[in-house]
Amino acid sequence: MLHIYTIDYIVIACYFLVILSFGAYFGRYAKTTSDFFFGGRRFHWWLICMSIVATGVSSHSFIKYSAMGFKYGFSSSMAYMNDWFFMPLFMFGWLPIVYYTRMKSIPEYFEKRFNPTARKLATVVQLVYMLGYISIGFLTLGVALRNILGLSLYPTVLLVAVVVAFYVRIGGEICDIFLDLIQGIMLTIAGLLLFFLGIAYIGGLDQFWALLPDSFKLPLADFNKPSDFNFVGIFWQDGIAGSVGFLFLNQGLIMRFMSCKSVNEGRIAATTNVLIFLPISAIVVSNAGWIAKAISAAHPEIIPPNFAPLDDIFVKVNFLVTQPGISGFIAAALIAALLSTVDSLINATTAIFIFDVYKPFHKKERSDAFYLKAARWTTLIVTALAVGLVPLFHSFGTIYKAHGWFHSTVIPPLVVAVFMGILWPRFTSKAAVWTFIGGGAMIVLGQFFPQLVKPFAHGTPADPNQPYIFIGALYNLVWCSVIGFVVTLFTKSKDKSAIDGLTLWSIKSAKRMYKNGTPNELIGKKPVVNWKTADLTGDAVRMSRNDMKTMQAFPGDLVYLCDKRWYLGGLKSVHARLAEPHDEDGVVYLSPDMVKGGLFTPVKPLYAEKEM
Amino acid sequence: MELDFNRVWLPYIYLYGCGAIIITASIVSVIKAGGMNLKVKNHRIWLFISILGFFWYMFMHGFLTVIAIH
Questions:
Q1: Nearest C-alpha of chain B: how many angstroms from A363?
Q2: Which of A52-61, A508-517, A531-540 is predicted least confidently?
Q3: N or C: which end of chain A has fewer CB within 10 A?
Q4: For the whole model, what pTM was predicted?
């Protein structure tokens, strides 16, 4: 049990109060299921980027990367610095497909691209993936906070779960995105603060550098040893399966991108995150382990070289190198990290449950208000299920291992089916189904007969208790791909028109379908306009001839209208379609419903931007 | 721990060897499929950023490796 000062508890309590107030405030903006799940597809890149930072840097990151940082050094940052390779395919392949086809969930893609059976299988795997992720999040915070709160593991998990369920339930995606902005900033500051205070505690950067062994400073791990942390295993488990799983298949992250005002804003958000924030995040989540290693070298009586349990190293360093109050702030950042990750995941799992389980089985169409209410109750059920899974992951040993195994075994069938689905129009529905069934069977066989994985192991030793946790991802990916490929060769593919807009080769069609017409690619300017209400139907808006000329827009084109105040990040905005022009320059006419949907404030001017 | 080839440079070569194959295949696919249209200025900028991103990480890992062993 650590010695915690009263001021630390006050800081943590204040943080919770602020978070809950913030959630309650922005929760009032979630009026429809579109708002609840996708934030109304309105937000600007910087808001989404910070939200992705907060979602990506989860609490298990702080705990598990600090643990690996202490044991293996700077190579603990590997997982944060191998995500770029798939970015072009994501930005110009997957992102336009999900955005333009207005996909609500990943399993929905499987039904459109393949068939309802593939959707059901994808739904099961996605739910397992998301619930596992949430559960690991709860476990991590339980492990971290039990020392701070002086409680045992499960009461801590329950306390956290109640708070998370409360604010996700009241707000949904809009609430998440704004909370994530605060949390993303806060946890980045907290992580860097811990780094600088740790360096000061050790006696400066030179001292820190001198205390670390050379092998510890290398940014990549040893190629194939030891079994619990080697480069090649982590490359396939995290750099390939994990990166694709997170970027392409994590419903929580996909929902963030679908909350963007446009595909291009999504690209900017993703790029800024990977190129700028991920390297910073690598330092933020790992540095406690590096600092601990240096302290251990200089003062083994404070942190022994064989410190255990490893997952406690972050909390230990935090309360060792910081002053009372600051340690409370950093602990609050840990809570922030968990909340931001888990709230997105609970929201995303709720989306899958509503769109892929409830709606397909209850054919009767209900009102939007009904689904919104159902979504809010589902968050509670999802939270309870995730809490129930905590003991399973707790039995795994370290969080790093639990997470690594989870990634390498659950994701491969989804990764292969999606990749072959978007890249290869010939890839058949039966092949997708067999990728899940046959691939799943081979994955299970690999778990029971590790000798099957050995030919893929690149010489990594097999841990007798948990053999090939990481490199197993390669075996799983290869088998799923082979099965998908072979079954495709012997089965009939869908007609081209049935998969129009759903593969990389038909993105132009997806764009046309999104607009319901030919896209207008002319580049125009963004006029500032005042809004007035008029008797218009649907999403139609009317602008002046001159304003439309400024935008290089024509009737039927899609337009994005947004409150001019940049710091709102698109909160008050709406997507619309241009109707016939009028002659009143600087004025846009909207229906009262559009004003309500856009959350527009009287007198405040808007800017208009042609989408396509 | 011995800083031999397996420990220092093999992971780097493997990472950026596989990475180069993946990113090249990704870029070629999106250009051939028409998702990235090089006639559009905005897309040309994105192509440049895609390539730059690869070299940015390659540089960072290379730089950190060199300062670690020297």
A1: 36
A2: A52-61
A3: N
A4: 0.87
Q: A275 by DSSP, 3-state: which?
A: helix
Long-range contacts of A163-166 (CB under 8 A, 24+ apart): A163/A16, A163/A20, A163/A339, A164/A338, A164/A339, A164/A342, A164/A343, A164/A346, A164/A383, A165/A346, A165/A379, A165/A380, A165/A383, A166/A20, A166/A23
Substitution target from A85, A265, A267 for chain B, most B beta carbons within 10 A: A85
**Average pLDDT score, chain A:** 86
Residues of chain A in contact with residue B10, where contact means CB-CB under 8 angstroms, are 223, 231
Provide the domain count of chain B.
1
pLDDT (tens digit per residue) in B5-27: 888 999 999 999 999 999 999 99
Q: A6-488, which class in CATH?
A: mainly alpha
Range of the domain at B46: 5-69
Partners of B69 on chain A (C-beta within 8 Å) are 214, 218
In chain A, list all ranges with CATH 1.20.1730.10. 6-488
Per-residue pLDDT of A327-377, as tens digits, reads 888 888 777 767 767 777 787 788 778 777 887 777 677 776 777 777 777
Alpha helices of A150-262 — where are they, by DSSP H? 153-171, 173-202, 205-211, 231-234, 243-244, 251-258
Domain A528-610 top-level CATH class: mainly beta
Shortest alpha-carbon distance between residue A5 and chain B (Å):
39
Span A479-500, average pLDDT: 94
Side chain identity at residue A594, one-letter code: M
Residue A298 CA neighbour count, 13 Å, CB half: 16
User: What does the buried/exposed string (b/e) look like for A198-226 if buried means 16 or more CB atoms within 10 Å of the residue's CB?
Assistant: bbebbeeeeebeebbeebbbbbbbbbbbe
Residues forming beta bridges with residue B20, ordered by sequence position: none
Among A78, A97, A220, A500, which would you mutate to test the B interface (most chain B Cβ atoms within 10 Å of its Cβ)?
A: A220
Q: Closest approach of chain B CAs to the CA of A256, in angstroms?
A: 21
**Upstream peptide bond of A226 is cis (omega within 30 degrees of 0):** yes
Please list the residue range(s) of chain A that carry CATH number 2.40.40.20: 528-610
Which among B8, B29, B54 is the nearest to A84, CB-wise?
Answer: B54
B55 inside 8 A of chain A by CB: no
Cβ atoms of residues A563 and A525 within 8 Å: no
Q: What's the rounded Cα separation, in Å, for the pair A274 and A291?
A: 25
- A33 has a pLDDT exceeding 60: no
Interface predicted TM-score (ipTM) over 0.85: yes
What is the pLDDT at residue B64?
94
